[in-house]
Amino acid sequence: MANEEETTILQMHDLKPAPGAKKAKTRVGRGEGSKGKTSGRGDKGTKKRYQVRPGFEGGQLPLYMRLPKLRGFKAPFKKEYQVVNISALVELFPQGGDITVADLVAKGAVRANEPVKVLGDGETSVAFNIKGVKASASAKSKIEAAGGSISED
């Protein structure tokens, strides 16, 4: 029996945390002996006493007030027309005839799904029957003088 080792069984009441695993939390502001007084916040200054608002520059005129203000106004629902001059119509359709917005898109004069307006720059002798576009007064008079017509539907 003397050389036989005695075996011990680990019991629940024998368990304890490893040394150094349990560390007490730091109780700040509880006297000068233990993280007291300033409690890790350093000394003096406005930011130490209480936080200042974002963008505050110590009384200097802040950046957001030094920059220039936005000017003007952008209408949110403004209609932007794609313009086509009479001179362009004469180049694209030298024979004249019926022209729709789809024809203008196919020739690459305008983009699809956007409103189109015909302007009066240029001269024409051929008759254009244009459908689905707006037109300036000078463009309308020049096209009608050549025997054509413009309709907005």
From TrEMBL:
Residues 83-150 form the Large ribosomal subunit protein uL15/eL18 domain. It holds the Pfam family Ribosomal_L27A. Residues 29-45 have a biased composition (Basic and acidic residues). One of its GO terms (biological process) is translation. Keywords: Ribonucleoprotein, Ribosomal protein, RNA-binding, rRNA-binding. Residues 1-54 are annotated as: Disordered. The keyword Phosphoprotein does not apply. InterPro entries: Ribosomal_uL15, Ribosomal_uL15/eL18, Ribosomal_uL15/eL18_sf, Ribosomal_uL15_bac-type. Belongs to the universal ribosomal protein uL15 family. Part of the 50S ribosomal subunit. This is Large ribosomal subunit protein uL15. It comes from Bifidobacterium choloepi. The lineage of its organism: Bacteria, Bacillati, Actinomycetota, Actinomycetes, Bifidobacteriales. The gene is rplO.
